[in-house]
Every structure is written in C-alpha cells, then in structure tokens.
Amino acid sequence: MATFPTINGTEVFRLPPPDYGPLDFDNPKQQKKLEHYLIFGLGAPLALIALLQRYYTKIFLSKGLQIDDVFMFLGWLSSVLTQALLIVSIAEGGMCAHSWEMSLADFQRYSLIGYLCGPIYQLCNGFIKLSLLSFYLHISPQRWFRIAVWLTIGIVTAYTVIITFMMWFLCNPPRKAFDFKVEGGSCTDAAVLYMATAVSNIVTDVILFVLPIPMVYNLHMPKIQKFGAIVVFAIGSLTVATSVTRLVYLPVVLASTDVSWDSAPANIWTFIEANLFVICGSMPTLRKFFKHFMPRIVGSSGASHYGTTSYGQHQQSNTLSRVRKGRSQYAQFPEDNATELERFSDDENKSGGTVVVGNASTEGLRDDHSERAILQTQTFTVQYSS
C-alpha cells in the first residue's frame, strides 16, 4: 500500500516547500475564492432567468417546447451541477487551496469532485451545442445547410460521448483517479485528453457561430433587425473567447504539481462559460418575449401588411402575382414563432405554389420588411386593366 508523509499527525498528499511557513489545515490559504462565489452567485441566477424566459416564451407565446428546449434544460442542469460541486469543494477547503495544506482525505475528496465535474461539464457543453444545432434545423430548408447542421450534430454527439466515456474511465480501475491508496492499475495521459477536449470544443464553437451567418445575411427583414440577429450570434461567440482563455491556462494546470491551487484561475472561466452557454442559448427568444411585454419599445413586424389589400379597392387595375417555389425555397413562416430568426416549418411548404392577389401599385411589390422568411423566389407579374 502506498505511504504518504505526515505533518503534525495529519497525513498529507505531499510536503510543502521548505519556505512555505506554518500550515493551517482548518483554514487553508485559497486563491480566487471570492471570485468563484461572486460569479456563481450572479451568473447562475442570470442563467436561470434566461432559461425561464425561454420556456415562458415557448410555452405561452409559441407552439410549445421542442427537442432543442430539452437539450437546453439538460445543459443547464449539467452547468449548475458542475458549479455547485466546485463551490462545495471550495467551501470545504479543497479547490483553490494548496495540495499540501489539506489532509490526504480532503485532497482525495477534492480529486473525487474534480473527477465527477470533468465529464459532467463535457455533457453540459454537448447538450447546449445540440440545442443550438436543433434550433438551426428550423432556420432554413436548404439542402446544403441542413446537411451541414446534421453533420455537425453527428460530430458533436460523437466526440461528447467518446470524451465523456474516456474521462469516466481515465484510470483502470476508475477509482484510482481519486483514491491514491489503490494498489496497481494504471491511468492514461490526461494531458492529451484534456487538450484534445479543449481544441474540439473551440472548433465546434466556431462552427456554431459561422454556420448560420449565410442564412442571417439572406433573411428578408429590415437591416436593423438583421443586424440584431447577427449581434445575437456575436454574443453567442463569447463562448469561443472563454474556451480559448481556458485553453491558455490548461498547459499550466496539466504540468502543475499543485493542481488544486493552480487550476483556480482556469475554473473561474469554467464558471463564466457554463453560465454564458445557457444565457446565449436562450437569446433567440428574447425578441418575442419583449415584443409581448413591451410592444411599443420592440415594435412589431411589418409582415402583417403582406397581401392585405381588399378586393373593393382599385377595381380598375389588378395584379396577379404568382410565387413559384423551387425545391429549396420557402413559403412564409408561421405567425407565432418564438425566435428572432423565424423558423421554417415543413408543414408550411407542401403546396406547389402560392397565389397572392393584391394592389397593382408598386408599393405592394416592394420589400415589405417581413421577417418571416428567407425569400428565395421567382416572381412573375401579369398586369391587366378592365
């Protein structure tokens, strides 16, 4: 059985440096402790509010919850669980403290929490991305876009499952990862696994940001709303910045012999990222939410004016406009959609063509600033006078 040093009758994982000074096992020195508490205390409630806003909008202002909302809930749950476990470790004097200023039992408990948090947080990352990708499937019916989204879904699902599994079974037996008195067995190189995890997360973060930009660019909506939609995705890209920041800290943590202390700065960014995942993932429903409660501030879509001219007016001149849809083209979107980027519905696109009878004035032929579709149509106008 492995033996460990003892200080004043307390078994410890390792001895302190000669010049460290007196040890206090009851109140160990901890770095970044307050920062963790503040970020969790502010970020977690904001993430919960964002999630509740999302569900209120979906349930009461739209057609109800869908698969992307299920993934978002699982991501939020994993996020809260990860942060809560780390907060418990900080409160117990594990996380943020020196490995030599805690008993061996406390260090093993800290290691157990770290062992649990790694795969749980990886699941959080995967669930949030699957939520966003499920939402992307409703942005456009274009074949290339849907293939790209489904391919990304497959990639995210595969590496999330593989990495989570590898984290759980990093050691053989698994208990060896946190119980340092286990005899025999072996552990794989954690440095390679965690570096691969960080890089893959950054790559998929970038893909999720870039993928919808062509669809947003082609949205048939006023420029200010198009700009707002792009801002939503730009804010979402903040998770790319947090992932890169964590990657910068990672080599220091992996090479550390005092990981409970040296990992504290990186874990702050884990807290920030975990809450940003949920907040940014819930932003597409914000416009619908505020439009319901503050319609004068947010304004309403100009889409309601589309094709509203009555038959009783301008009887001397009528226009027959036939809009023909190709295989990758839309009819209009449903009225009650909850998202900033109005969703495409396959049920709306079953008819072979749409006929709109309206006013012959050029006003009816201009862009009506509708935000309900990405328009890719061929329009033929036949004008006649009685």
UniProtKB/TrEMBL annotation:
Residues 306-321 have a biased composition (Polar residues). The keyword Transmembrane helix applies. The keyword RNA-binding does not apply. The chain crosses the membrane at residues 37-57, 69-90, 110-135, 147-170, 190-215, 227-248, 268-286. Its main location: membrane. Residues 341-350 have a biased composition (Basic and acidic residues). InterPro entries: Rhodopsin_dom_fungi, SAT4-like. It is a multi-pass membrane protein. Keywords: Membrane, Transmembrane, Transmembrane helix. GO terms for cellular component: membrane. It is found in: Membrane. Residues 54-291 form the Rhodopsin domain. Belongs to the SAT4 family. This is Rhodopsin domain-containing protein. It comes from Fusarium piperis.
